[in-house]
Specification:
With about 350 residues, the protein is an alpha/beta fold. The protein contains 14 helices and 7 strands. Helix content is about 40%, strand content about 10%. It has a 7-stranded parallel beta sheet with strand order 1-2-3-4-5-6-7. Strand 2, helix 8 and strand 3 form a beta-alpha-beta unit. Helix 1 runs antiparallel to helix 2 and helix 3 packs across helix 4. The longest helix has 18 residues. It is globular, with a radius of gyration of 21 Å.
Length: about 350
């Protein structure tokens, strides 16, 4: 049985390892186990095909750093034209992650919220871009965290400047086939200001503003805090607005309290999109708040908030929720083609 892609092309050892990791991430399997497959792919990627073949025949793959018995078995199967049993089982999970939003999901041109290993993501930004391309995206906004979020290795202005150079190099290599857009998930500070210099924010294509600290702040100061961020001309998207967690290995967390009518009204007035966060542990905003934002005339973005390549496919969940809420697709900014998106994102600057 030949390890092939859906189009019938042969799938080599690196592609097989990447596919296994991708499907494991979609199923939210243990990060440590997923990284074993991604690390093995990174190890053999630069090696000549003949060297990999020789090591397969000699049984010496595990002498390479980053390759253990399980990943060596996968490489051996793939090199010999056999689909590894692990991939056979995972491919059974490869259908849509949610039903009801298929038509809207097909209209999404990109994703406005993603993380790489520059902050708290698990993979290089190049891997995130490659996976987004494979999913059919036209663009992906890279939104690693801002400096105050030290637990997530947030980017100082200096590190963000270096990252922008890498993004430019990636786009030069892609030559217009796909665009990795320059972005940030910037913390909304206690006083409603944004956790990055205005000069750096000016250099970005798009900015997601989110609350990550003091989530139990009283409703009045939290409302003032969020309104300050929404009214800031650098803010394009209000990220996971309640901060709640409804399931997952981080446990659960109640939603922040704020005057949703005031905050969403300001979003509608200023042209700030309310994020429909597609991560199943968030489901943010909750349904009643999503419907309120709809009724107040807000724009939306359906985002994966991906911290690993396979999580980019979680847009299925957000598309299903938006469809259930009856939101007009043209009010969802990542159904827009890239130039329209960029024009909107820069309009208030």
């Amino acid at each position: 049985m030949s390890p092939t892609t859906p189009s019938g092309e042969a799938r080599g050892p690196v592609a097989t390892l990447r596919r296994i990791a991708f499907l494991m991430e979609r199923q939210r399997e243990e990060t440590r186990r997923i990284e074993a497959f991604r690390n093995a792919a990174r190890t053999i990627l630069p090696l000549p095909e003949e060297e990999v073949r020789q090591r397969v025949e000699a049984g010496t793959l595990t002498e390479l750093s980053g390759i253990g018995p399980s990943t060596a078995a996968v490489i051996t199967d793939a090199a010999n034209g056999v689909v590894p049993e692990r991939l056979v089982e995972l491919e059974k999970t490869a259908g849509p992650l949610a039903t009801g939003g298929e038509e809207l999901r097909a209209r999404l041109r990109g994703d406005l919220h993603s993380h790489s290993d520059w902050s708290d993501g698990g993979s290089p930004l190049e891997e995130m871009a490659m996976t987004a391309m494979e999913l059919g995206h036209d663009y992906l906004v890279l939104t690693d965290h801002s400096p105050r979020l030290r637990v997530a290795n947030g980017l100082s202005p200096e590190r963000l400047t270096r990252q922008l150079g890498v993004v430019e190099a990636v786009n030069e290599h892609l030559d217009g086939a796909f665009t990795l857009l320059k972005g940030i998930e910037v913390d909304i500070l206690d006083d409603g200001s944004l956790d990055q210099t205005p000069e750096m924010l000016d250099r970005l294509d798009l900015r997601v503003a989110s609350v990550h600290s003091k989530l139990k702040m009283d409703a009045a100061p939290m409302t003032k805090r969020m309104l300050g961020a929404v009214r800031n001309p650098h803010t394009n998207v209000l990220g996971h607005c309640t901060g709640r967690l409804v399931t997952g290995n981080r446990g659960t967390r109640g939603q922040s309290q704020f005057d949703a009518k005031a905050v969403f009204g300001a979003c509608a007035e200023k042209g700030v999109a309310v994020e429909i966060n597609s991560r199943p542990e968030r489901r943010d905003p909750p349904t009643k708040l999503l419907e309120l934002a709809r009724d107040l005339g807000c724009l939306f973005s359906i985002d994966s908030d991906a911290h690993a390549p396979g999580q980019l496919d979680m847009l299925d969940f957000g598309a299903a929720r938006a469809t259930e809420a009856g939101i007009d697709p043209d009010r969802i900014v990542n159904t827009w083609e890239r130039d329209r998106l960029l024009e909107w994102a820069s309009a208030r600057l």
